[in-house]
Write a structure and sequence with these properties.
The protein has 16 helices and nine strands. It is of the alpha+beta class. The chain has two domains: 252 residues, Nucleotidyltransferase, domain 5; 138 residues, Tetratricopeptide repeat domain (Serine Threonine Protein Phosphatase 5, Tetratricopeptide repeat), CATH 1.25.40.10. The chain has a seven-stranded mixed sheet, with helices on both faces. The protein has a two-stranded antiparallel ribbon with strand order 3-4. Strand 8, helix 5 and strand 9 form a beta-alpha-beta unit. Helix 3 crosses helix 9, helix 6 crosses helix 9 and helix 14 packs parallel to helix 16.
């Protein structure tokens, strides 16, 4: 008997004498399961405003809230959620893959976790999903009362996600979805979110409101954009500790607020999606001037050029505060991309007359006269004027170094072209 055969025999004997132990999940009594919901939401199981009801409690706790679409979330009518088009969502998310989604089969998703930094040891102990159903907006929450219920939570969640066409989240692309996918893998299950169309409201919100509000956190956007002020709320940083206190000591302090916090996050996420889409749908009627500028830029970037032109023409003609080099540039770039070169040229000339000195109009006009009109003298004159302007604006030296280099290079090329043209004429 060789060494390999001896090792196999030893292993066979050890397995016979010491059969493997099968770990079973600890059992939670039905009474304790029912008591948790009662402790959180009262003996009747109904909250006066949110009206939660318990759907399941055998393998994990499942709670559902039903909000009529006639309700308002801050200054947003929830009924508008049912009328959104996937095309507007695709523009807000800068993702053509969202154009084909069915909003009636789209899930809003948010998690509460045992840690805010992520990582292999972080678990989502509460997962909330929101969706439209007839004349209501439903929020369903899956809660694991202890770690042994994680697999059941994930399987129940998978049943819901598998029938969905897309996801909407707030920072879910960076946090919630990678975390949940990792938990499915850790539980030897398929990562159910792979490949799903996903609209992350945070990224869309940053495109519009970055620098216009104190921060683009959901709490700040609620107050500044939606007019939502939470009466009872728990700071997100305290959520993990509240859950651990519940596990270790059975204390319910703060746990109800965690459920309501998650529920409000999903409602606010839905309201922000409505607000973003309404701004894109009708930017002249539903935005402030700075918001209108950001929407116009977004429309240009997704090649909705006619609509972007409409926004920036309105700003140039009717908003004195918006008559800046950035606004003129956005409109001129739209004209240029649409082959409306004469309108772009006229606009840059207006910028020279109306705006304080900036090299960009000179550069763009020099491009026009060099490449389209072949008028090298006019292009050179514009470049010389710009260089003189830069010299007179020494205080802007650091801001205009890039433009100075561009102009110097352009002047040298034009001088060569002009010399070549004159030589050709004289020959």
């Amino acid at each position: 008997m060789n060494i390999k055969e001896r090792l196999r025999e030893i292993d066979r004997v050890q397995q016979k004498n010491n059969p493997p132990r099968i770990e079973t999940a600890p059992h939670v009594s039905p009474q304790k399961q029912v008591d948790l919901f009662s402790e959180l939401f009262g003996a009747a199981g109904v909250d006066a405003h949110f009206q939660p009801r318990q759907l399941a409690a055998d393998d994990c706790l499942v709670i559902e809230y039903r909000t009529p679409l006639a309700a308002n979330i801050g200054n947003i009518a929830l009924i508008d959620l049912s009328t959104l088009s996937s095309e507007l969502i695709a523009i807000a998310g800068k993702d053509d893959g969202l154009k084909a989604v069915d909003l009636r089969r789209t899930l809003f998703i948010d998690t509460e976790t045992t840690g805010l930094a992520g990582g292999a040891g972080t678990v989502a102990f509460l997962v909330g999903v929101g969706y439209l159903e007839e004349d209501s907006f439903i929020v369903r929450q899956y809660f694991m009362r202890d770690f042994h219920e994680e697999f059941s939570l994930l399987m129940r969640l998978a049943e819901q996600v598998n029938s969905a066409s897309a996801l909407i989240s707030f920072n879910g692309r960076s946090f919630d979805i990678p975390l949940l996918n990792s938990r499915y893998i850790m539980n030897r299950a398929r990562a159910i979110f792979d490949g799903m169309p996903h609209f992350d409201v945070l990224f869309a919100a940053r495109r519009i409101w970055r620098d216009l509000v104190d921060s683009c956190s959901l709490g700040e956007l609620e107050k500044s954009i939606l007019g939502v002020h939470r009466a009872e709320d728990v700071p997100g940083a305290l959520v993990p500790q509240i859950y651990f206190d519940y596990l270790h000591s059975g204390k319910f302090d703060g746990l109800r607020e965690v459920f309501l916090h998650n529920h409000q996050d999903i409602l606010s996420m839905a309201a922000l999606a409505v607000r973003l889409c309404r701004m894109i749908q009708d930017p002249l009627a539903s935005t402030t001037m700075p918001e209108r500028q950001r929407v116009g830029v977004l429309l240009r970037k997704v090649r909705e050029l006619e609509r972007s032109v409409e926004v920036f023409e309105n700003l140039v003609e009717k908003e004195a505060r918006a008559q800046t080099i950035d606004t003129f540039a956005e409109l001129a770039w739209c004209y240029k991309r649409m082959q409306r070169h004469d309108e772009a040229r006229s606009l840059w000339h207006r910028a020279l007359e109306k705006l304080s000195f900036h090299p960009l109009p000179y550069i763009e006009l020099a491009k026009h006269y060099e490449h389209r009109v072949k008028d090298y003298d006019q292009a050179l004159e514009l470049i010389d004027r710009a260089l003189r302007g830069i010299e007179l604006r020494d205080e802007l030296r650091g801001e205009t170094d890039f433009h100075r280099a561009d102009l110097e290079k352009r002047r040298q090329r034009l001088q060569r072209k002009k010399a070549g043209k004159e030589k050709w004429r004289s020959s």
